[in-house]
Amino acid sequence: MTQPDAGAPAVSVVGSVVGSVVGSVSVVVVSRHRPAALSLCLTALTLQDHPGFEIVLVADAGSVGVRPDLPIKRVRFDAANISAARNAGIMAAAGEVLAFIDDDAVAEPTWLSRLTAPFADPAVPAATGATRGRDGLRWQVRAERMTGNGLAVPVQPWGDSVRLLAPEGGRPVGTLGTNCAFRRDALAELGGFDTAFAYHLDESDLNMRMAARWPDAPTAVVPLAEVAHGWAGDDRRSASGVPADLTQIGRSAAIFCDRHGGDSARASERVRTRLLRLMVSGRLDPLRVAPLMATFHAGATGAPRSVCWPKPLSDAPPPPFLTLPGTGPRAHSLLTGWHWQRRRLRADAVRLSGKGRLVTLVLFSPSILRHRVRFDPAGFWEQAGGLWGPSLPGDPAVRAWRFRVRAAREAQRLARTRSLQKLDEIGGV
Fold first, then answer.
1. 132: which DSSP letter?
2. Domain spans in the chain, listed from the N-terminal domain onward
3. Cα end-to-end span (Å), the chain
4. Helical axes 264-280 vs 247-260, angle rounded to 10°
5. DSSP three-state, residue 372
6. Amino acid 5: pLDDT
7. Which has the least CB within 10 A, 135, 186, 193, 227?
């Protein structure tokens, strides 16, 4: 197996590769057969407070034309290979820093500016943020390190400050593909994402190769660079996250372990444990566990061994930078009220978002229901749940709140990622 030379001092090498302070940013969005989710993702990107970035959309023929009103780069691509699609986006991107987000994710308005700020340090080749789950509130991933088995080890949370974490014992910080950024020159030198990983562990393999090439180079972990990941369904899993086939996951796990010295049995054990948890929760038919594991093992058995490291990407110049207009800081309006006032409050949210404001609508019910957040196609966030129910990880199942106190608490929470500047209305009594 061919490996790059990792003998040079890491920081000096990174400095020579990536240059100095970042001057331009591209956001690469890969989508395949999910136009509705993609439209939401693009709408949220238009609300970013980062000025003057470009969007590169890599999508199938039925999705590449979504949001035709937006001046974005569009690359038609319909192969079932996430790494090849991302590499197509890299080749079309003209930014010095490239950020990646999935089509079923919605970025907070401050996501891009916070995620890319650490690249002012020339020693930083990569950054990752924090990702919430499909309810928009509970965590999916905050910070973790990758092992040679392809398994993630969580890093203890430390608050909102940015930290630069170099690889530790050969374990680099993992950069979830729906919330990460890299210097373009570093990606090009490493060969981008390896197309041997058509699905699963594609970004983890990149993290391992980056750590081997620059063993002391830190990845910036930016807790306040947040996205909500919807986990939309596709031909490999349902919308509830239940897998339909594990062949590609087994293949990727085998290649990853072979390349990075991992134990494929550990990866298989983790997959089986996840299936059993889905079974216990009632989401997976017990009779489906063995057939799914059979697809995993079939993929692992058929995987090639000793796959060579990718060659550097072409140095052909990308198309000229295409700035997305209308982005930058804007005022944020918070509307709150009872769920029976939702029709009027939603109309107010549409009106205010149409005037260029960021808008969040919080609807309470007199209950202990857990809160959920969705992003509306009209361009505003809607949070709904019980006045006495939890909205954040760690909240008690029930807590006594008065309406105005609870509304103020949600406003304080939202100020962290949406730069709350104005409280337009507090409804309810």
1. E
2. 10-229, 233-311, 332-426
3. 68
4. 150
5. strand
6. 35
7. 135
